[in-house]
Q: What sequence folds into this?
């Protein structure tokens, strides 16, 4: 240490200070990242319960599934289908057109069948579908 | 090819950065005997910077609604990862800022650096000090706890002692006859928008004054001689040390120590600044016992209590604050050396004793 | 087991009502207090006794038990305003049991309760009346119990419940500490409160066999609560370690900066 000039000592110390600064920044960055990350609400919402009477035969019922819009259909009495309502083109929410019994996306005119299949327009793939089961008077999605 | 040099060269050709840096940093010479008290301004800037950061983060989850505010703060403290850390940093930070504001002010007073030509620096600083207090007062209400609610009720009620306009003033401050949704709305707007903007503008002006006039020489040592200045002139220190890196590294050291203090209190004793009443949601129908303001308002609280009428108490406070604000225009002699200013220094010490005494009295009564 | 569940549910309801009364609520200076404070010893003593009581701390004032109108000097003691006055010896369990429902039920079914008509002990015989304090296990003691019978059976009950009582008291203290440092303890506090109430109901049956059997169930419930409390306490410790490390780091940074500052001095000689 004795023979190091002040300038050499300073360079050495500055590197250490830079290191300390970097560690402090990293240590502070982690809580910041965690603070802003979406809060995990657990798996409680995996299963969504909808009353059967909400879904008319030939009608559509929109609801939220895992934080995203979804839709339940009853094409014929007792038969239920659950689909994502998010258009596979650019993410608009599809509309149910009662007269035609099909989905129409208001953004660029994409069309989907009640089963989610693309009928026309720009959407590249079918709407995602979710498993459905019945529990008494309720429908369970997921 | 040195990318650093390239960038600086590029900037230099555009905005003459080298000359600017030299003028403001390396060529800006400070008095050789400049002391640790001159770092308080930098510490305050760092602390306020952190306060802005943690404040913005708290805003992500805080809900300014009387029905939801307390629950949102409880959620920040318990459910949001590291929410407790952000909130405690903000709370402890606000208290430390008051401490550093007081230290900054006291050192400036002791060294007489508020004197001509630095009157504007002092006045802008004094307004900043008051802004700091209003920051705390408005922030205090936001969690909508028992403490928030009743401290604000008592604080706004004091305005009622002003003759004639008192009652109107209370309602105006509260936005209604009593503290409620309307009060939260205006305090929130002030705390997160109004005050920060005013604050930034004033800090800008304060720093401009400091730089434009040049930092004062500490009034100590053989060489020091009080100067009489008439026209404008930058105070030069021909034999001084460069601001950067000589003094910035000292600023940095003290900022590190201040942050260490902040983190230590945040992790080991945050409850110092969070009384029990702050942990219960506000209830406008039940006043908790022994409601007390925060430590930096205790002196004012006690003053109001010892005067026979609230108005006299308020007038005394106003006079004291007014005197401080106007000090550079009252105390106009050029002498800055403490040893040569026995009357001022006696008053200075008495003032500190009075502040501490009143605060303790307020705390224990 | 079914019964235990029921008991818990009932006490949870009582608890919900009580929790709306924050702890510091101060009963106001009612006309009852104002007038009685100045009366002869027999009629003024209750005022002072009540002031130090657990009832006063929780904002339960004269009229909450004795009825009447606490805001009107004229009508304060009028039966029209629901004034009840002093209950007969035998009425006391019903009197207290308006709030302390669960305990009343178990007490009435107990040997103590069944002996009520023969001047068997009722609530105030052990707990006192106006000066009532927060109940502790020390209410079971030779002096008190042997006013009526041998202490032996009481000692037996005390021995069975003392470990669980101690745990309850200890866990309540931990919950209060955690609340103090900013944790939301609402759920755990309610949980403990209801466990404590159910447990206190249980030992008002003064039936050692039954108490012994059910105490084990309480211990299991409390063990789960304790685990949750320990999780919190763990995170408090972890935070302190992390915070300590950051403080050290910052101090180090400060010192290095000071050392750099020194190099400038050295250069200038
Ligand atoms: C938000 C609060 C404040 C900030 C960020 C701040 C910042 C600064 C900075 C960076 C300096 C230059 C370095 C120094 O001497 O510390 C300074 C100087 C000064 N400040 Fe402040 N300040 C604040 C509040 C105050 C207050 C409350 C007062 C007094 C009422 C005050 C009065 C002065 C004076 C008179 C100087 C000139 C010192 C000299 O030239 O020797 N400031 N301030
Ligand atoms: S987003 Fe649906 S068609 Fe373009």
A:
């Amino acid at each position: 240490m004795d023979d190091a000039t002040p300038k050499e000592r300073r360079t050495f110390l500055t590197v250490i200070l830079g290191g300390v600064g970097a560690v402090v920044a990293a240590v502070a960055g982690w809580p910041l990242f965690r603070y802003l990350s979406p809060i995990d609400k657990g798996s409680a919402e995996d299963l969504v319960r909808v009353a059967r009477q909400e879904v008319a035969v030939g009608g559509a019922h929109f609801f939220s599934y895992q934080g995203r819009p979804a839709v339940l259909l009853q094409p014929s009495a007792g038969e239920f289908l659950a689909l994502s309502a998010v258009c596979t083109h650019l993410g608009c929410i599809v509309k149910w057109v009662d007269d035609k019994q099909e989905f129409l996306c208001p953004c660029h005119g994409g069309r989907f069948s009640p089963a989610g299949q693309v009928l026309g327009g720009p959407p590249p793939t079918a709407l995602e579908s979710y498993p459905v089961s019945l529990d008494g008077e309720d429908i369970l999605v997921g | 090819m040195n990318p650093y040099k390239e960038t600086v060269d590029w900037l230099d050709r555009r905005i003459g950065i080298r000359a600017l840096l030299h003028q403001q940093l390396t060529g800006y010479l400070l008095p050789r005997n400049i002391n640790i008290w001159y770092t308080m301004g930098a510490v305050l800037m760092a602390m306020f910077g952190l306060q802005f950061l943690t404040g913005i983060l708290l805003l992500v989850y805080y809900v300014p609604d009387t029905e939801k505010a307390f629950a949102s703060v409880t959620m920040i403290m318990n459910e949001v990862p590291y929410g407790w850390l952000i909130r405690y940093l903000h709370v402890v930070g606000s208290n430390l800022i008051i401490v550093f504001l007081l230290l900054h002010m006291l050192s400036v007073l002791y060294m007489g650096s508020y004197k001509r030509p630095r009157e504007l620096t002092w006045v802008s600083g004094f307004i900043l000090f008051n802004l700091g207090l209003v920051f705390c007062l408005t922030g205090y209400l936001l969690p909508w706890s028992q403490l928030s609610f009743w401290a604000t009720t008592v604080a706004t009620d004091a305005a009622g002692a002003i003759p004639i306009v008192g009652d109107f003033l209370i309602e105006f401050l509260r936005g209604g006859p009593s503290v409620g949704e309307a009060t939260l709305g205006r305090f929130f707007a002030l705390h997160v928008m109004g005050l920060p903007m005013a604050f930034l503008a004033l800090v800008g002006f304060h720093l401009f004054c400091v730089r434009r006039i040049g930092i004062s020489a500490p009034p100590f040592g053989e060489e020091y001689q009080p100067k009489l200045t008439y026209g404008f002139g930058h105070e030069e220190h021909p034999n001084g040390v460069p601001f950067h890196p000589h003094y910035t590294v000292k600023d940095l050291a003290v900022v590190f120590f201040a942050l260490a203090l902040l983190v230590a209190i945040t992790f080991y004793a945050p409850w110092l600044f969070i009384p029990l009443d702050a942990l219960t949601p506000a209830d406008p129908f039940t006043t908790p016992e022994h409601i007390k303001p925060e430590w930096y308002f205790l002196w004012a609280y006690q003053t109001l209590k010892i005067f026979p009428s609230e108005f006299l108490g308020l007038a005394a406070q106003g006079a004291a604050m007014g005197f401080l604000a106007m000090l550079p225009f009252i105390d106009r002699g050029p002498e800055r050396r403490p040893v040569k200013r026995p009357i001022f220094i006696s008053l200075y010490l008495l003032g500190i004793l009075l502040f501490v005494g009143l605060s303790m009295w307020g705390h224990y009564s | 087991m079914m019964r235990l569940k029921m008991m818990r549910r009932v006490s949870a309801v009582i608890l919900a009502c009580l929790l709306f009364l924050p702890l510091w609520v101060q009963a106001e200076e009612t006309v009852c207090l104002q007038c009685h404070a100045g009366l002869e010893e027999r009629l003024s003593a209750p005022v002072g006794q009540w002031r130090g009581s657990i009832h006063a701390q929780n904002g339960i004032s004269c009229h909450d038990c004795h009825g009447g109108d606490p805001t009107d000097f004229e009508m304060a003691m009028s039966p029209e305003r629901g004034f009840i006055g002093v209950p007969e010896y035998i009425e006391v369990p019903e009197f207290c049991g308006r709030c302390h429902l669960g305990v009343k039920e178990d007490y009435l079914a107990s040997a103590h309760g069944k002996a009520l008509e023969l001047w068997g002990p009722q609530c105030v015989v052990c707990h006192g009346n106006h000066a009532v304090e927060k109940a502790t296990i020390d209410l079971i003691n030779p002096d008190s119990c042997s006013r009526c019978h041998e202490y032996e059976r009481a000692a037996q009950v005390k021995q069975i419940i003392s470990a669980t009582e101690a745990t309850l008291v200890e866990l309540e203290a931990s919950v209060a500490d955690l609340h103090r440092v900013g944790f939301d303890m609402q759920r755990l506090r309610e949980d403990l409160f209801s466990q404590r109430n159910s447990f206190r109901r249980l030992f008002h049956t003064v039936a050692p066999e039954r108490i012994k059997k059910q105490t084990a169930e309480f211990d299991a419930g409390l063990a789960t609560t304790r685990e949750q409390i320990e999780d919190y306490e763990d995170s408090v410790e972890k935070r302190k370690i992390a915070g300590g490390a950051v403080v050290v780091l910052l101090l180090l940074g400060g010192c290095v900066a000071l050392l750099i500052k020194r190099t400038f001095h050295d250069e200038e000689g």
Chain B touches chain C at residues 74, 77-78, 84, 88, 146, 241, 245-246, 249-250, 252-254, 256-257, 259-260, 263-264, 266-268, 270-271, 274, 276, 279-280, 283, 286, 288-289 (CB under 8 Å).
